[in-house]
Amino acid sequence: MATAALEPEVDPFDVSRPEIYAEDRFEEIFRRHRAEAPIHYVKDSGFGPYWSVSTYKPIVYIEALPKIFSSSWDRGGIAISGNPKLAEEYNMREPMFIAMDPPQHTAQRRTVAPSFGPSEVAAMKAECAARTGEVLDSLPIGQPFDWVQRVSIELTTGMLAKLFGYPWEQRHHLTEWSDFGGDVELIKNPATIELRLAKMQEMGMAFAALWQERMANPGKDLISVMLQSDAMKEMAPEEFIGNLILLIVGGNDTTRNSMSAYAYGLNKYPEERAKLEADPALIPNAVQELIRWQTPLSHMRRTAVEDTELDGHQIKAGDAVVMWYISANRDESVFKDGEHIRIDRENARRHLSFGYGIHRCVGARVAELQLVTLLEEMAKRRLRANVIGEPTRVPACFVHGYKSLTVELSRY
Fold first, then answer.
1. Three-state secondary structure string covering 83-101
2. How many angstroms separate the CA atoms of 145 and 387, rounded?
3. 3-class DSSP state for residue 356?
4. Is 327 exposed, middle or buried (0-12, 13-18, 19+ CB in 10 A)?
5. Element (H or E) spanning 292, and its range?
6. Model pTM?
């Protein structure tokens, strides 16, 4: 008599499983992870074996030691999906400065960083406010609509188009490319690998044309900044594509999902929304708290370059080490009652959503500007987003986001 094949046992702390995020049940799993096995070796997952790190202090320790814990793309890069063998097989090498170690990382980051400096971001404020106000004034009051499409995507894609000097009427391509570039699930089968490659090539060709145009007529946009720098003007095609993915995903998915968290999260905690509506001076801190609570990129990955020890665990050279920001941002030892939004939380700014150390998000100020502006413009109009039903969520462990969120606006 034949016996049925046993289903492989699922590691309860394999937090890479997409259904955890699609079904929004990550909080309890990570709470157990932090309490029972804060550093845990997952022997098998959809992405292969990895060390899963779920608490705040070890993550900061890892981030502070780039010579031991590498971000380099040729070792696996910055996402759990990084796979040097697959990259070689499918010719999908995508160097980007966040997936480089010093000194190459340092030189390329220095090229881009001035575009996101305090004075540059301050100069964006008026246009950002005007564009945000225009979008909000186009929305219906008292009628359902998709907040993700009409607000979050529209505002962030508009900002990206301005930063790149990308043709305004074609800006919807930036959203599509961002979705493909940041989707770690696509590497799990050959058909979706090929589809992603095709989309990234499409993006590369569009920006290559823009590059040629800016060589003849440079401006102040990011493409012009890159082509005028010694560190980036001679980039190979795959490096150009890699940096575009970084800047587009970093500038699009993260901010847009924090904007959606504003609508969803404050609806979930109406007492916190009432505090904010009563005192708009709380907006800057509320933005930090929403970024913490949402954690729009759930994790970053590093690869050990030598044998080392992490809180008593023996990490071998070549091991993937995945740092779960989404869990660290709820670490009870740092954020009391961290699963709840508290817009006046004193240490909200300690969140790790922008990373830590040499790889801290270079565009953090632009993200904060867009979010603060959205909350300010909503407050000026005394608008409130009332959520109708649960959102559809991104089914993946990297981008922690919303595919759709139906709301209805009212006045307060």
1. CHHHHHHCCCCCCCHHHCC
2. 10
3. coil
4. buried
5. helix 283-294
6. 0.93
Strands laid side by side in the 39-42 sheet: 39-42, 50-53, 320-324, 299-304, 69-70
Q: Is residue 143, in this structure, part of any structural domain at all? A: yes
> Which residues, in sequence order, are bridge partners of residue 399?
297
Q: Strand 313-315 and strand 308-310: pairing? A: antiparallel
Count of Cβ atoms closer than 10 Å to residue 251 Cβ: 26
Which domain CATH number covers 110? 1.10.630.10
**71 in Cβ contact with 359 (< 8 Å):** yes
| Residue where the block lists tokens 């795959």 | 238
**Structural domain total, the chain:** 1
Structure tokens at 49: 């074996």
What domain range is 267 assigned to?
18-411
What residue has token string 């058909």? 191
Cα–Cα distances in Å, from 252 out to 259, 341, 411?
Answer: 11, 23, 28
**Ordered DSSP codes for 259-315:** HHHHHHHHHH-HHHHHHHHH-GGGHHHHHHHHHHHH-SB-EEEEEESS-EEETTEEE
Three-state secondary structure call for residue 299: strand
- Using alpha carbons, select from 378, 402, 375 the residue that is nearest to residue 390: 402
Per-residue pLDDT of the chain (412 residues; tens, 9 = 90+): 444 455 568 899 999 999 999 999 999 999 999 999 999 999 999 999 999 999 999 999 999 999 999 999 899 999 999 988 887 887 767 777 777 888 888 888 888 878 788 888 888 999 999 999 999 999 999 999 999 999 999 999 999 999 889 999 999 999 999 899 889 999 999 999 999 989 988 988 898 898 889 989 998 888 888 888 888 878 887 787 787 778 887 778 779 999 999 999 999 999 999 999 999 999 999 999 999 999 999 999 999 999 999 999 999 999 999 999 999 999 999 999 999 999 999 999 999 999 999 999 888 999 999 999 999 999 999 999 999 999 999 999 999 999 999 999 999 9
**Measured distance CA(31)–CA(9) in Å, rounded:** 21
Tokens of 178: 């961002």
Q: Report the DSSP beta bridge partners of residue 46.
A: none
CA distances from 200 to 73, 172, 182, 190 (A): 16, 15, 11, 15
**Is 10 within 8 Å of 4 (Cβ atoms)?**
no
Amino acid at 319: D
> Is residue 11 one of the residues assigned to a domain?
no
